[in-house]
Amino acid sequence: xxxxxxxxxxxxxxxxxxxxxxxxxxxxxxxxxxxxxxxxxxxxxxxxxxxxxxxxxxxxxxxxxxxxxxxxxxxxxxxxxxxxxxxxxxxxxxxxxxxxxxxxxxxxxxxxxxxxxxxxxxxxxxxxxxxxxxxxxx
Length: 138
What we know:
The protein is mostly helical. Helices cover 72% and strands 0% of the residues. Helix 1 (2-8) crosses helix 4 (43-53) and helix 6 packs antiparallel against helix 7 (104-129).
């Protein structure tokens, strides 16, 4: 959340982003308390900041929780291959963005995307290492 706040530039801009998205009620002081940890971030806060930034790190982190199910989830190697392609492409894009930037947020995003691609590969590998059942070659 701090990197999303930093992307907007200042607490006033964050408060105005909240107010524009959801109606009044947010102030620089409220944002300051959230950044310091004295107030909790709400789902509405996350949505407003991610949409304003055009980046979705919190949403992706939450979505990753769904991906971290056991291998026996009814998925397939085809789905794993598709996920590897998607995540690898996102990692490459983030690495290139980090190379062209001096912003630590871009480097952090690249690391996150690399982790997502590695997770997809580990998942496929785990599925491949799982014993073949019912009619497979042994």
